[in-house]
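During the first year of the project, the team set up a workflow for recording each protein of interest as an amino acid sequence followed immediately by a discrete structure-token representation. This format lets reviewers and collaborators read both layers of information side by side without switching files. As required by the reporting guidelines, we include two representative entries from the current panel. The first entry is reproduced here exactly as it appears in our internal archive.
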Amino acid sequence: MSGLYGNGIALTKKVLDYLWARQSITLNNIANDDTPGFKSQHVTFEDELIRRLQGTGKSPNAPLAVYRAIEGTQAKLHTTWTESSRLDGNSVDMDQEQVELVRAAYEYQYMVSSINNEITRLRSAAKAF
């Protein structure tokens, strides 16, 4: 998808995948709030993306290197093993999970709007030809 469309659409797709995973994990945490011994999980993405993107601008074919870095980035699942303030060993913090769920939903809506705007701009540019 690099080239004609740039890397914006590829990055938006990857971020949407990450946000979908984040919502799923958060919903799983909420569903297991009453499960004794359940350890909450969370997903990270940004740190690996930054690590992969570092140095791609110095590449002779930078747009392709950036595209490959974006495509190669995967979200990482982490489990909260040590933190638990509850007697049953469950580490789910419902207040935090609800905030994360709302945040992920808003970020997802923003990214969908962003990709829609990008496609609209591409359509407008194509009509000019």
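The second entry, processed by the same pipeline in the following quarter, appears below.
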Amino acid sequence: METSFLPLLFGGDINVYSMARAFHEAYGIRSTAYGKYATGVCYESAILDYRVCPQNEDGPTFYDNVCKFARANPDKTVLVIGCGDSYVKLAARYKDRFPPNVIAPYPGPELMEALTDKERFYQLCGKYGIDCPATFVYRREMGRDFDLPFEPPYICKPANGVHYWEHDFPGSQKVYRLESRAELEATLDKVYAAGYPDAMIIQELIPGDDSFMRVLTCYSDEHAQVKLMCLGHVLLEEHTPHGIGNHAVIITEPADALAGPFRALLEGEGFTGFSNFDLKYDQRDGKFKAFELNARQGRSNYYVTGAGHNLARLLVDDRVERKELEPVVTRNRSLWMVVPRKVAFDYTPKRYHQELRALIRAGAVTNPLLYGPDAAPKRRLRLAKNQLGHFLKFRKYYHRPDGSSQ
């Protein structure tokens, strides 16, 4: 299909592939993506022109890639879509310097930084009446002279994820669960010894397994009006050290009860583009607690497209076609998973199995990676190995709330 626009994606993971699939389903077009490695779910895909650029996260290189692509396609509107935190921050930084045929649907760098830095995000949550876990902000200069207002186990994570992964080290984790003060201090020592320069967030552990998690995905138009809110009930997450917290199984559910405060935050701060919030239900007080805002669509974003709200079409209707979008809060039920069905049933709570089976029987289930038009034999073999790998990963890393691994 001939279109007046071209998607230009940055990254190489399931986030990129999910957006490329959304564009292909809606418009029949191949997206272009710049990724760092000649591997992964996007490599050698039929629906992507995947270009390897090892320096992809370097600012001038990112800017140059956008400009070269835009100048090579002067008659097209180029939609720059970051699929990782570093890329959306770069898009926000350079958006006013891109060629005139480029649209980067992001707020400016100041707002981007305020919303994605966890310490500042929690301050905004207080302003808009959004509940958060009990939190302590740790800075290196505190050393070991600090008191925590809650008991272990502790959750510990970087306030600035981009800077954290720039100083990776052996044994690093996306999020740490620490059983004692001694474990916490040892972890902080390792993080700062690696060169990480920013604050660390220490929080109380909210009880409950993966099924207490939620993900709220939103889209705000160019006038900062929220036009889509889609709530996903997470039933299972990944548990590898670098992948902990990544969603594995999601069922969509109505978001009306949560919509108000999050809509107020996004519109009150003038946010534009995709956003998603990680939440957990706290059974102790019956409240949903917000962990963070990602100023982009999440890696599980296809749960929204699979529920009937194609994210690519939403973006094009707003930014290219200049259509007036009606606000939507998703209510229909659908199932998204990136693990084999047996893994889903083995590791999700049994109380959800009846609904899982019903959605599967109804055909309301999607795995974003398994796409018919992108089924070359070599790719199918790689995906089969990817799916089999989940059996090994969950057997090795998953521990049930009672402490058992099976």
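For the second entry, the following points were noted during internal review. DSSP finds 13 helices and 17 strands in the chain. The CA atoms of residues 265 and 348 lie 32 Å apart. Both points are flagged for discussion at the upcoming steering committee meeting.
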